[in-house]
Amino acid sequence: MQDTGIINFSVCNVHQAEDSSSEMLTQGLLGMKAIILERRKWIKIKLENDDNEGWVHPKAITSLNPDEQWTNSSKIIITAHYGFSYTQPDIHSQCVSDLVSGNRLRLLQETNAFYKVEYPDKRQAYVPIAISQKEDEWKKQNQLDAPHILATAHSLMGIPYIWGGTSAKGMDCSGFVRLCFLLNGGSIPRDSYQQAQLGKRLELTENLSNLQPGDLLFFGIHVPQNPIHGVRHIGIHIADGRYIHSQGYIHINSLLKNDQDYDEENTKRFLFAQRYFF
């Protein structure tokens, strides 16, 4: 039987080695499942739809037993980008942990403005209803389309770039795109070269007039034989050559010279576009 676990922190950093000072490869969010590959001082894991295999602190993941209630239990999802859980249904009580958008917790009870929840490691807490939603209700109202992806992208404006980041605490370019999909109910691969294989490749006009909102734009090194091998960066097209991306921080640039947000360096590195939303 496959050894699996559930991420236990709001954001779990996955490192290249068993050391918090080693390179961060990716991140997992509270409530995500992970395959446990090896147990030593730290635990080696692989997250769903993520090719990275790396090490996490043992307190960051809770083993999932076959009879564990977590899998089939009702859950809530955190919908605000930042928040906290508390020991009592009172925001002035002791904080249990921080929370970020996309976190999932087991729902125990609904009180007057709070959900009583349980963490994978059995800690219990209260989460304000104002920053969360029952997962079943959230799934029913999800709309995985360009307007919703772009609305989420804009809500993350200004958050700093962090190599390996996939959370509202900081994200790299592909982590940003992945989070925009995740928060709208979509699941896409972790890295930009994988995301470059989603949807349909576009034959672009010289003035880029056939780009549509939500198209994925790829940048990097020109490799004529196999353009995907040259992918180093990704952004999401907004309209009229303008795109939103994580580079330094999440902001907007343009591929067009007459735009005040024109980025000459990235335009030189522009490779191709993929259409995911039709």
Automatic annotation (TrEMBL):
<keyword id="KW-0378">Hydrolase</keyword>
<dbReference type="InterPro" id="IPR038765">
    <property type="entry name" value="Papain-like_cys_pep_sf"/>
</dbReference>
<keyword id="KW-0645">Protease</keyword>
<protein>
    <submittedName>
        <fullName>NLP/P60 protein</fullName>
        <ecNumber>3.4.-.-</ecNumber>
    </submittedName>
</protein>
<dbReference type="InterPro" id="IPR000064">
    <property type="entry name" value="NLP_P60_dom"/>
</dbReference>
<dbReference type="InterPro" id="IPR041382">
    <property type="entry name" value="SH3_16"/>
</dbReference>
<keyword id="KW-0788">Thiol protease</keyword>
<feature type="domain" description="NlpC/P60">
    <location>
        <begin position="143"/>
        <end position="277"/>
    </location>
</feature>
<dbReference type="Pfam" id="PF00877">
    <property type="entry name" value="NLPC_P60"/>
</dbReference>
<comment type="similarity">
    <text>Belongs to the peptidase C40 family.</text>
</comment>
<dbReference type="InterPro" id="IPR051202">
    <property type="entry name" value="Peptidase_C40"/>
</dbReference>
<dbReference type="GO" id="GO:0008234">
    <property type="term" value="F:cysteine-type peptidase activity"/>
</dbReference>
<dbReference type="Pfam" id="PF18348">
    <property type="entry name" value="SH3_16"/>
</dbReference>
<dbReference type="GO" id="GO:0006508">
    <property type="term" value="P:proteolysis"/>
</dbReference>
